Amino acid sequence: MSGSRRELNREANELKPRPRLGRTVVALTAVSFLTDVSSEMIYPLLPVFLTTTLGASAGMLGVIEGAAETTASLLKLASGWWSDRVKRRTPLVVAGYALAALVRPLIAMATTATQVLAIRVTDRVGKGIRTAPRDALIADSVDPAVRGRAFGFHRSGDHAGALLGPLIAFALLSWLALDLRTVFWLALIPGALAVATAIAFVRDAAGAAAPTAASAANAATPQGAAGNALPTSFKALLTVFTVFALGSSTDAFLLLRAHQLGVPIALAPILWAALHLVKSAASTSGGALSDRIGRTPTVLAGWVLYALVYAGFALASAAWHAWALFAVYGFFFALTEGAERALVADLVPATRRGAAFGWFNLASGAALLPASVLFGLVWDRYGAATAFLMGAAIAMLAALGLVFVARGSLRRGSPGA
Prior knowledge:
Layout: H1 2-15, H2 23-40, H3 46-53, H4 58-86, H5 90-103, H6 113-141, H7 147-174, H8 180-186, H9 188-201, H10 213-218, H11 232-246, H12 252-260, H13 268-293, H14 295-315, H15 319-347, H16 353-366, H17 368-382, H18 384-411
Helix pairs in contact: 2-7, 2-9, 4-6, 4-16, 4-17, 5-6, 5-9, 6-16, 7-13, 7-15, 11-16, 11-18, 12-15, 13-14, 13-15, 14-15, 14-18, 17-18
């Protein structure tokens, strides 16, 4: 009789309408879309601008990008914690987007690599202020049964903007014959639109979504323990994320490698756009996949794919290899970005989501400075192939660590970890 009742409950849950993503998720996706249009009008051109126009080395490129992302990561922890404390996330989200939109185009005025460093760090301060509260706001705003899909949808919009941005830059450079500095100035327009959208439409959630029977079946791990403590399982996962981040240097090196393989400077925005086309097209499905099969298997597949792509960049010898590898690289993001964020939300109490996302971003971002500096130094001394093989090896080490952590969670009674 109890088996029949469970079967009836399962069928009833399957007949229920699929939970909607809601206005907040859609609005934040639009804001991220516009922000990335602005950012990606600049970013794919920045490595060449630094190394040719300003005469910076690969090592300096690693310092700039690593310092910028590490600064952002430290602030993500503080802003996430503060949003939990004051129980308001929207003001921090709006402020972070506004600061970045204001300072990002100032790269057009830079005459030294040090000035670019200062601008990039300030830009990333804005990112640091907004990211953890924004991710917590997304988790607060949706039913846990579609949490992976919600984060995947947000990342899809983000990457759609990153697709359009380089295309705009390519058109401005190739068709209108504008110079790099003018393109950088024009990035102010979509940035301002993003801030206006955030002010007009983003609102704090009334409360965290309650778990459902479907979410209990689909989530990779159960909701975090009651209270305000961050669970041990989350801390173990954080350690593995940090190891992976040590092998995950700035993507600027991929663009530099592509140029080394023969991709012309004028096509760098198109190459970057192709990467984000794959990201945007696959991210919603990647996040939804983690709702169905579990977070950890989805993330693990992505990390193994990352290692294979980096090994491919080490062995590549022609321009078309760069195009193919960039396309495959997009699936790494689709498999991991939504699933990782959903996993964080699954593991912690709702009252600690801001801090948890802050720690998550700190783990993945603070390591970017040493990772990028090390990658640049190895590149300068031993060549690009050695640097990429090093990144692949660290990614595989992290993947093994993820398997170990997941098995430990299973032994402690966390199904699907």
